[in-house]
Design a protein that fits this description.
This protein is an all-alpha fold and 439 residues long. It has 3 domains: 1-184, MFS general substrate transporter like domains (Growth Hormone, Chain: A), CATH 1.20.1250; 194-243, no CATH class; 246-431, Growth Hormone, Chain: A, CATH 1.20.1250.20. It contains 19 helices and no strands. The longest helix is centred in the last third of the chain and has 50 residues, at 376-425. The radius of gyration is 21 Å and the shape is globular. The two termini are 23 Å apart. 54% of the residues are buried.
C-alpha cells in the first residue's frame, strides 16, 4: 500500500475527531448548559436532539454529493460548516440560538464520516482494507473515551462555551492539512438529486432517531411514521434507476451480512457507551471526571485491537468478528454481577474494548470488500445510516431495561445482543473477497 494512502487516512482521521469528540463532550455538559442558560431539562435536551436530527437528515445526501461535486470539495465544505457551527455555538446568547447553531454543526458533521470512508476506500483500490480500517476507525473509538475526560475538565474549570471552542484549533489544522493533502477532484457527474428519495428517507430517519430518543406518545407516533417513510423509500429506491441510496447493494451477501452486523454492533457498542458512565456514577458513586478516567482501560483495549487489521487482511473478516464478539461478551458479563470486584472491572474493560473494536474493524472490512469505486459512495452512506440506527435502538432499549431491571439486566441484554451478532457473523463469507473492477 503506498504511503500516500496512509497520509490521506491520517489527514481525514484528524478532521473526523472533532465531531466525534463534540458529541460526547456536549452530552456531559447538558446539566451545566441548562443551569447557565436558565432552561428546563426538556429544553436543554434539544441541544443534543437537534444535532442528532440534523445528522440523520443529512447523511443520505452524502453519496450523491460526492458523485456530483467530488469528495474533496464535499469534505472541505462539510468541515468548514462544522467549524462555523462550533464558533456560533460558543457565541450563542440563549437556548434557542444554541439549538439553531447545533443544527448547523450537525449538517456539517453528518457528512464527514461517509466521505472519509469513500475517499480512503477509493484510494486503497480494495487492497489492505484491514490495515486502513485500523486507522480510519480510530476517531469512533477514541471519541467516546477521550470525550468524557476532556468534557469533565472543561465543565469543571472553564465556561461552557469552551465545549464548542475546543473544536476550533482541531478543525483549522484539519482544514489546512486537507487543503494540501487531499487530491483534487475530477469533473463531477451529472447525477440528478433523487428528490423523492430525499423527501422520504431524510425525514424518515430523523423521525426514527427522534422517536427512539423520546418516550410515551412522542415515541408511539414518531417511530411508526419514520418506519413508514423508510418503507416507502425502500419501494421507491428499488424501482429508481438512480436512487439517493442504492439498496441493490444488499444483493451482495458480504455487504448485507456486514450491514446487519453493524446494526447489531451498534446495539451493543453504543448501548454500552450509554450504560458504562452511568454505572460508574450511579452504581459505584464516582464523579464525572473519575468515571471518565475509569473508562480509560476500554480505550487501551481499543488501541490493542489495531493489530487485528493485518490479520483480517490475511484470514478474512469472519474469524476476527467471531473472536471479537466472544471477547466483547466476556468483557461485558462482569458488569452484570451484583457486586463485582473492583480489580476485575478494569481488566474486563480492556477485554471488552479489544473485542468490540476488533469486531467493528473486521465488519467494516467485510462491507467494503468487493465493492468497486463507483459503488463505494452508496456503500459509505448505507454503512453510516445502519450504524446510527443501531446506536439509537441500542441506547433506547437499554435505557428502558435499565429503568425496569437495573444495571445487571441491562448488561445481560447487551451481552445477548452480542450473541445474536455472533450467530449472524457465521453468515459472513469464509474467503477474502477480491476487489471489484470499476464498471
Amino acid at each position: 500500500m503506498p504511503s500516500s494512502v496512509y497520509r490521506l487516512a491520517g489527514i481525514l482521521v484528524l478532521g473526523a475527531m472533532a465531531p466525534l469528540l463534540d458529541s460526547t463532550i456536549v452530552s456531559l455538559a447538558l446539566h451545566t448548559l441548562g443551569h447557565d442558560l436558565r432552561t428546563s431539562t426538556t429544553g436543554v435536551q434539544w441541544v443534543s436532539t437537534a444535532y442528532l436530527l440534523a445528522l440523520a437528515a443529512v447523511v443520505p445526501v452524502s453519496g450523491w454529493a460526492v458523485e456530483r461535486y467530488g469528495a474533496r470539495r464535499v469534505w472541505l465544505g462539510s468541515l468548514s460548516l462544522f467549524l462555523a457551527g462550533s464558533m456560533l455555538c460558543g457565541l450563542a446568547w440563549n437556548i434557542g440560538s444554541l439549538v439553531v447553531f447545533r443544527i448547523v454543526q450537525g449538517v456539517g458533521g453528518g457528512v464527514l464520516l461517509p466521505v472519509l470512508q469513500t475517499l480512503v476506500m477509493r484510494a486503497a483500490g480494495g487492497r489492505d482494507l484491514g490495515r486502513l480500517m485500523a486507522v480510519i476507525t480510530l476517531p469512533a473509538l477514541l471519541g467516546p473515551i477521550l470525550g468524557p475526560v476532556l468534557g469533565g475538565l472543561i465543565v469543571g474549570h472553564l465556561s461552557w462555551r469552551w465545549i464548542f471552542y475546543v473544536n476550533l484549533p482541531l478543525c483549522l489544522l484539519a482544514l489546512a492539512l486537507a487543503w494540501r493533502g487531499i487530491p483534487k477532484d475530477g469533473p463531477g457527474t451529472a447525477h440528478r438529486l433523487d428528490t423523492t428519495g430525499l423527501l422520504l428517507l431524510s425525514p424518515g430517519l430523523a423521525a426514527l432517531v427522534y422517536g427512539l430518543s423520546q418516550d410515551g406518545t412522542v415515541r408511539a407516533t414518531s417511530i411508526p411514521l419514520g418506519a413508514l417513510l423508510v418503507a416507502l423509500f425502500t419501494a421507491h429506491a428499488l424501482r429508481s434507476p438512480a436512487p439517493l441510496v442504492d439498496l441493490r447493494l444488499f444483493r451482495d451477501r458480504a455487504f448485507a451480512v456486514s450491514s446487519t452486523l453493524m446494526f447489531l454492533n451498534g446495539l451493543a457498542l453504543y448501548g454500552g457507551m450509554f450504560l458504562l458512565p452511568l454505572y460508574y456514577q450511579q452504581a459505584r458513586g464516582e464523579g464525572v471526571v473519575a468515571a471518565g478516567l475509569l473508562l480509560a482501560p476500554q480505550g487501551l483495549g481499543s488501541l490493542l485491537s489495531r493489530a487485528t487489521g493485518p490479520l483480517t487482511d490475511r484470514v478474512g473478516p469472519r474469524p476476527v468478528v467471531l473472536t471479537g464478539l466472544l471477547l466483547s461478551a466476556l468483557g461485558t458479563l462482569p458488569f452484570a454481577l451484583p457486586h463485582p470486584a473492583a480489580a476485575l472491572l478494569p481488566l474486563a474493560l480492556v477485554v471488552r474494548g479489544l473485542g468490540m473494536s476488533a469486531a467493528n474493524l473486521a465488519v467494516n472490512v467485510g462491507a467494503y470488500q468487493g465493492l468497486g469505486p463507483d459503488r463505494i459512495p452508496h456503500g459509505s452512506t448505507t454503512v453510516r445510516i445502519v450504524q446510527q440506527l443501531g446506536g439509537s435502538v441500542g441506547t433506547a432499549v437499554l435505557a428502558a431495561v435499565l429503568a425496569e431491571g437495573g444495571f445487571s439486566h441491562a448488561f445481560l441484554w447487551s451481552t445477548a445482543f452480542t450473541g445474536v451478532a455472533a450467530l449472524t457473523a457465521l453468515r459472513l463469507p469464509a474467503q477474502v473477497a477480491a476487489p471489484e473492477r470499476p464498471s
